[in-house]
């Protein structure tokens, strides 16, 4: 039986979200990794009292660039989306909360919602997650059925 239109569209829904968020994060990460002065982000983090600001800055820069590339490919979508959600929780509540919603943290809040949605939905159709991990789950399920049938036959 073929999946209904609603079921099929549910697997397609994460694709534009994943691609757009991936592009945004790669662009921001590229800026931090290749264009900004190397002390700019650590200095900002240090002024907020973030411990080990240089390490955190390297992690955030790498997450944005390489995590954004992974989102574009749909690889490890859920864990990377959770990491980004954590980053944007920090940005909204620690960096921009006092500025108010508009003009303040509305953009970051929208990104947070997008990352939480990806964390819940996964990468969707055509993602590497689907290709690599769902096929493995199907094989495990098939083995489980074979074991069940074999046990009943004893």
Automatic annotation (TrEMBL):
Key words, A-Z: Cell membrane, Membrane, Transmembrane, Transmembrane helix
Keyword Transmembrane helix recorded: yes
Membrane topology: Multi-pass membrane protein
One GO CC term on file: plasma membrane
Record field: transmembrane: 65-93, 105-124
Record-linked InterPro entries: DoxX, DoxX-like_oxidoreductase
UniProt-annotated location(s): Cell membrane
Chief localization: membrane
Keyword set includes Transmembrane helix: yes
Protein name: DoxX family protein
Record-stated family: Belongs to the DoxX family.
């Amino acid at each position: 039986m073929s999946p209904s239109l609603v079921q099929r569209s549910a697997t397609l829904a994460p694709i534009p979200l994943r691609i757009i968020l991936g592009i945004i994060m790669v662009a921001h990460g590229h800026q931090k990794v290749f264009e900004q002065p190397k002390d700019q982000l650590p200095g900002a983090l240090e002024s907020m009292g973030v411990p080990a600001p240089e390490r955190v800055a390297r992690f955030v820069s790498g997450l944005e660039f390489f995590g954004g590339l992974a989102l574009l490919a749909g690889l490890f979508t859920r864990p990377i989306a959770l990491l980004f959600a954590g980053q944007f929780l920090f940005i909204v509540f620690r960096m921009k909360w006092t500025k108010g919603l508009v003009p303040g943290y509305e953009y970051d809040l929208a990104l947070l919602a997008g990352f939480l949605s990806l964390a819940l939905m996964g990468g969707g159709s055509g993602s590497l997650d689907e290709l690599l991990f769902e096929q493995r789950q199907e094989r495990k399920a098939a083995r489980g059925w074979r074991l069940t049938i074999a046990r009943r036959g004893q």
